[in-house]
Design goal:
mainly alpha; about 75% helix
Length: about 80
């Protein structure tokens, strides 16, 4: 679903295409860092005393849990703890 008019989406695509690969990679990394920081803040707001290991588990679950089978998730979570 998108609420962006096609002409605007095309202009955004053109602007991004003019950037170098390094710029696009930098932008992607900055967006991921921001998303992670927001997720960390939300998790800490929900669980103020969360320890580092449990925070890693919660971040994994928030970002990647849907990408793995139940068995793989359990194995990864065990490793993160």
């Amino acid at each position: 679903m998108t609420d962006t008019p096609p002409a605007v989406a095309a202009e955004i695509d053109a602007l991004l295409a003019r950037r170098s690969g390094a710029d696009r990679l930098r932008m992607t990394c900055e967006m991921f860092d921001l998303a992670r920081a927001l997720a960390v803040a939300a998790i800490k707001a929900e669980e103020p005393g969360i320890d580092a290991a449990q925070l890693r588990v919660r971040l994994f679950e928030r970002f990647y849990a849907g990408d793995f089978t139940h068995q793989d998730r359990a194995r990864i979570v065990a490793t993160l703890r």
